[in-house]
Amino acid sequence: MKFISTRGEAAAVGFVDACLAGLAPDGGLYVPEEWPRIDPAGPDESYVDVAARIISAFADGELSDDVVRGICQRAYASFAHQSVAPLVQTGPNAFMMELHHGPTLAFKDVAMQLIAQLFDHVLAERGERMSVTCATSGDTGGAAAAAFAGAGHVDLFILHPFERISPVQRLFMTTTGSSNVHNLALTEDFDACQAIVKSLFADRDYVRRTSLSGVNSINWARIAAQSVYYATAQAALGAGRPLRFVVPSGNMGDALAGYVAARCGLLAGFEGVCAVNENDTLNVLFEQGRMRREQAVATPSPAMDISVPSNFERIAFEVSGRDAGLVRQIYDQFAQSGDVELPDQIKGPLSCSGLSSKSVSNATTMTEMATVLAETGWLICPHTAVGTSVAREMPQSNAVTVVLSTAHAAKFPETVLEATGRDAPLPERVKALAGRAEVFEQMAADAGAVRDYILSHQRT
User: Which of 129, 147, 431, 456 is deepest in the core (most CB within 10 A)?
Assistant: First the structure.
């Protein structure tokens, strides 16, 4: 199977090279040349069984089935729940999918643990090493740090917005003690961090010199790995049962994974609602057909404080009839003006894609955490609260509603305490984190400084 760029000016590559590259050379995002047909998950299959089948379908023979299975087994061995993404019932015809049983208590672990195993296996076989970078609004950096800490063939460089993530989120990325993990705290918002990462990849000579790769949600392996828990949810709730997923969204990778699962035949049907906070540019995209860049504002759900949802590009590519020229034109214009009206070729089909969006205010997010506690006795994180708030206001449906619980409440103890009056202590398995020394460097959001830092700190 080959993977092509959404902008149409990069050569098609195989699964492994698409994952190692992250971003295509022309600035686009990789997607499969054709969608594979994958049998739905069965009720007797384990999470590893389903993950191995799905990853093997995308790898299409590049990696042996035994190798893929070994990667999946190692990736999920550290999860605290054997189901990896268990479902809990929250009400009539309503469930929550808990995605916070990984080592850093967030859904990003589900894909990042697999990516780290994949990278280290492939690079060891090739006798190579890489520099991996990611911009993070909170959880991606911690998940990457935990997954790649001590990796023999990867140097990891994390960019996070200084004082715009929770202290616990920061601890997960700054306390690994591993010499191959580097943390840069930039004095701007997440969008500035992401823009710097994209500028690094735009310089193809720099990419070659540093053997640079990325593990943000633009990486196809992230999408493939996250499609697995949509498939297992379908199997658990009934093979033919229609499901409606509510997905707390920032960069839109998690919602895209549901779309991908449906395209590959893993779901009986697909309805995905992107629940966003007051940074509602994704909502504007769906409701007005307008893509605009705005300054992200701080909210109680900081991992979603994103104004440019990168994975929308893949959806635009699909609904346009895979018109790479049109996608390239839109994103070139957006890079210049930061404000683009989507053409009818995208607007119309977008409304039939199965995806939609709904925004939630800061005040509603805080109230929702208290409401869920009163109803269920559970503490939920503010990102999950954005999802449950959207689900609460949705019209009745024959579909089962599944809210993705994206992080453990303990990652946001200050916010949870303010909203509910209750403490959200770290689980026993990660309590030692609080006593470890933090290592990170604060610097201006300057692309040149970041470039120099990576050059001077990568191992050869």
Answer: 147
379 in Cβ contact with 416 (< 8 Å): yes
Question: pLDDT tens digit string along 124-144?
Answer: 999 999 999 998 877 889 999
Which tokens sit at 29?
């995002």
Residue type, 281: T
pLDDT-derived band at 293 (thresholds 50, 70, 90) equals confident
pTM > 0.90: yes
Q: How do residues 183-219 score in pLDDT, each as one tens digit?
A: 999 998 888 998 899 899 889 899 999 999 988 888 9
User: Which positions ≥6 away from 382 have C-beta within 8 Å?
Assistant: 299, 300, 301, 365, 366, 369, 412, 415, 416, 419
**Token pair for residue 194?**
């992401």
For residues 365 and 411, give the distance between their C-alpha atoms in angstroms, rounded to a whole number.
16
Pairing between β-strand 154-161 and β-strand 181-186 as defined by DSSP bridges: parallel
Q: Which residues contact 28 (CB under 8 A, 6 or more apart)?
A: 5, 6, 7, 8, 9, 10, 313, 324, 327, 328
CATH topology of domain 87-102+220-420: Rossmann fold (3.40.50)
- Does the active-site annotation cover 108? yes
Contact 247, 387 (CB under 8 A): yes
Q: In this structure, which long-range contacts are made by residues 282-286, counting pairs with CB atoms below 8 Å and at least 24 apart in sequence?
A: 282/249, 282/252, 282/309, 282/312, 282/357, 283/357, 283/358, 283/359, 285/309, 285/312, 285/342, 285/357, 286/350, 286/355, 286/356, 286/357
Contact yes or no for 251/217 (Cβ under 8 A): yes
Q: CA-to-CA distance for 30 and 10, rounded, in angstroms?
A: 10
Rounded to 10°, the helix 362-376/413-420 angle is: 70
Residue 448, Cβ density class (10 Å: 0-12 exposed, 13-18 middle, ≥19 buried)? exposed
Closest CA to 319 of 351, 346, 286: 346
Identity of residue 59 = A
Mean pLDDT of 10-28: 94
Structure tokens at 209: 């010199």
Q: Residue 237: CB partners within 8 Å, gap ≥ 6?
A: 87, 95, 243, 400, 402
Q: Would you call 29 helix, strand, or coil by DSSP?
A: strand
Between these two residues, 152 and 402, which has the higher pLDDT value?
402
Cα gap 179→177, rounded to integer Å: 7
What 8-state DSSP symbol labels residue 61? T
Active-site position among 108, 198, 358, 411? 108
Q: Identify the bridge partners of residue 441 per DSSP, sorted by sequence position.
A: 184
Strand partners, 343: none
